[in-house]
Amino acid sequence: MRxxxxxxxxxxxxxxxxxxxxxxxxxxxxxxxSGFGKPxxxxxxxxxxxxxxxxxxxxxxAGEGTVAxxxxxxxxxxxACHGEKAEGGPMYGTMVGGIGSMDKNPRVLTPGSMYxxxxxxxxxxxxxxxxxxxxxxxxEEVYSVVGYIYHLNGLxxxxxxxxxKTLTELKMHNRDAFIVDDRPDTKAERCMTDCQPIGxxxxxxxx
Amino acid sequence: MxxxxxKIEPGRANAKPGDRAADFAENTPPGEQIKPTRRSFxxxxxxxxxxxxxGVAGASRSSAEALPVPESSMAMGDPIPxxxxxxxxxFEEHVKRHRTDVLVNKQNFSDWSMTPLQHQxxxxxxxxxxxxxxxxxxxxxxxxxxxLVIHGLVEQPLVFTMSDLMRYPSVSRFHFLECSGNGLxxxxxxxxxxxxxxxxxxxxxxxxxVPLSWLLAEAGVKPEAKxxxxxxxxxxxxxxSIPIEKVMDDALLAYGQNGEMLRAEQGYxxxxxxxxxxxNTNVKWLRRIKLVDQPDQIRGETARYSDPxxxxxxxxxxxxxxxxxxxxxxxxxxxxxGPGLYEIQGFAWSGNGKVTNVDITLDGGRTWQEAQLExxxxxxxxxxFRYRWNWEGGPAKIAxxxxxxxxxxxxxxxxxxxxxxxxxxxxxxxxIFPWAVSQTGxxxxxxx
Lengths: 207, 448
What we know:
The structure holds two protein chains of two kinds. By secondary structure, chain A is mainly alpha-helical. Chain A is built from eight helices and four strands, in the order H-E-E-H-H-H-H-H-E-H-E-H.
């Protein structure tokens, strides 16, 4: 068993550690004086370390794909659930269109309309799709099918090369649409008598 | 969902606290065989009890018949099995988790299943009834094979086996979990019939495990680490990034739930617990923790689990489940059997602290009276409230409104719709939820 490296931590992040120990002193009591984790080197985690920092593209692997190959991958591995040209199938609705619908009702949510950063599609397909065999595509297949879906959404040319650089540079329509949590956003009062009756969504939209 | 129509009998006006003033009797759905026993027993016992009381208002009562010796008193019971996992008695067969059937998904892998809150008698949800939300079905993981990794911006990446993790001193905490999508079918229309359908993505358990802060400290957090990514070992590789302050505050790596190891549906063998935060942040089947300087902004942090806002905007990282409450009895699909005393019961909870007050209205919000909170009242935990109501028999609109320890008052959906955009599948519905009681005692959803 390895000894915990509390010494290194004190040197490296004394202020953070201090803040941390005050916090869990209150919530959980003293941390244990020894630990049981085993050291492992980052390279030995390569097959696990699959998340992508999507705004910067950090984590996108080397390699490249094409829209044409993506169409083949899609027909073989995705179409049964997502339908022809990703326009909706037995397991999921459309993955095409919706750009410009964000101030309409309904908003049409697709990778083209909704994703603020293009590498999101790479991250998601690589980790989660195809639903019946996740993590079974090669890097080249993921780049290709990602290119194909963005092509169907009018964001990528038919002859485009799809790789870490082009995906990171691809500007998405919904990029500036996000605001970070700023709740509480209501200020209800604890009225006890002579109150307004409980209103509905329609009441809010009327006034 | 076959709508389970529940009838509530009026109880004694002088019922002592702790007595169940109202009994449930299952109404047999049309076309189904009538089971003779339970319903008639319940009805009989309530009437008998009522007749013994004096000065009762309400229903007219006839005297009960003479009681025979019950069969169970004249027979041996079931033998004790050599071993087994005890299950509820067959008369409670109807108490089931139920897959969403108001919004019906096209497949049952990225789907959800809801807790029968109308049948939950205390603040703890039994493990077999705990709500489910998965993104690619239920992973079944051999704990011997499972590994947890902590890496990224740390001094020393670490890997843990389950037996490593179980060696740490452990802590236990009671906390609710609620899906951010709870109630999403019931903003603009009264789509749900029962409280299971409208609020059943809510459950509560005692969680046992190791404070995440201890494990991160062991790996040595570098000062640049501001966020922590949590990733599951299921087929969706479900991932959420969490601000480091929350991880270091009250977050748990949980392996225990209500006195036993986690159920597969709850992330066996380990999951994250972020008290008070939306369900999907509490990553199940946890395999990897990575310290990073900024969130990954993956699909589940942008295109999903974000809230539509006016002007085409989206609010993201809206993690806290704000203060909320709902009446579970009487609730949608039930019917009151005649005027008299009913105990209004329900749950209140807040992801920001403790519930301090719950108020009840009987007239659609014009006047409110304070309900009683039942101990224990815990931080970020379901709290039971009770209020005695003498229903005189006219139409009523009943609802609860909770206040938490930050002073936040549960809003109406009108309040919420004034500041947010209600379009599509809108998350974070913590609006006051009214039930209408008709002249004849039928209880229906009155949200719109």
